[in-house]
Task: inverse folding
């Protein structure tokens, strides 16, 4: 459980790290299963509904940058999203009714690993309120050398930046006034978690180390935060409720929204969305 000091830090800065959330055996299980998925990806030469491949990926040297919706593809991932240590922490930050609206496993291969440009998750999936966050489960130790998550403290209280290029969504901040000043690297040992608010500006650099950086990301929403892009069929929507009871009364908040339309030129993942960018801006700024 979080202390009051940790809760206040998250509310003020829009991010938090917590060590030793998973046991050593749980981390080993995640590492083993993820290694197996990397080997399986060697059978493919292009992106699939499960695998998002790194540039330079081959069957002899498979390089995987994302497993899409991993909880749908292995029980170890599905068990982890319902881990009580994780959900107890999330409940302290967004309330007892918790829904998930997505999950992915972002991976950075040793000595490579694609960067992720500065963006706000809020630009991808705006809701009726912003009691929404992402938990990153560190399958490996995460540090600045191997591509740690970078976050700008307090940015969750600021504007929703433009994520469009040539009038199409591109999955990255393109506002000419934006500079990634004061960014911090979230360094977390294996088994710990990172947490960032849905409106927090964040990015990650390539992996400059000889060690992998695998981050299992779970998106969590307050039960009364309804997606502005549509909630789909009622039973399917409520199947994503992890704790609490469903509600048909969305809670409205006066917060800045930009819709991710017109749609991205390249879909499939944030990496593909951002591949069209004319200016690369990942890093800490000056």
Result:
């Amino acid at each position: 459980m979080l202390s009051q000091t940790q809760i206040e830090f998250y509310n003020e800065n829009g991010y938090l790290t917590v060590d030793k959330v998973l046991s050593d055996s749980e981390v080993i299980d995640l590492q083993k299963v993820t290694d197996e998925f990397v080997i399986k990806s060697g059978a493919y030469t292009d992106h699939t509904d499960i695998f998002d491949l790194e540039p330079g990926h081959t069957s002899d040297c498979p390089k995987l940058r994302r497993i899409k919706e991993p909880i749908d593809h292995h029980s170890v991932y599905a068990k982890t999203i319902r881990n009580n240590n994780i959900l107890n922490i999330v409940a302290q930050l967004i309330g007892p009714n918790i829904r998930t609206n997505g999950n992915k496993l972002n991976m950075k291969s040793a000595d490579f690993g694609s960067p992720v440009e500065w963006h706000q998750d809020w630009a991808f999936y705006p809701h009726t309120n912003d009691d929404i966050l992402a938990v990153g489960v560190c399958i490996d130790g995460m540090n600045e050398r191997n591509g740690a998550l970078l976050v700008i403290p307090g940015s969750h209280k600021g504007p929703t930046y433009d994520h469009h290029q040539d009038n199409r969504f591109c999955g990255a901040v393109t506002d000419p006034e934006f500079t990634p000043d004061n960014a911090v690297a979230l360094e977390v040992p294996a088994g710990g978690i990172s947490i960032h608010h849905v409106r927090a500006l964040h990015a990650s650099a390539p992996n400059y180390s000889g060690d992998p950086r695998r981050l299992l990301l779970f998106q969590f929403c307050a039960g009364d935060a309804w997606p502005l892009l549509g909630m789909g069929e009622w039973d399917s929507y409520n199947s994503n409720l992890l704790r609490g009871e469903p509600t048909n009364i969305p809670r409205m908040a006066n917060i800045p929204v930009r819709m991710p339309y017109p749609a991205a030129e390249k879909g499939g993942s944030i990496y593909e969305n951002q591949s069209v960018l004319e200016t690369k801006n990942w890093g800490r700024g000056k």
Notes: Residues 24-41 form the longest helix (18 residues). The first strand starts at residue 15 and ends at 18. Helices lie at 4-13, 24-41, 75-81, 84-94, 234-238, 270-274. The mean pLDDT is 95.
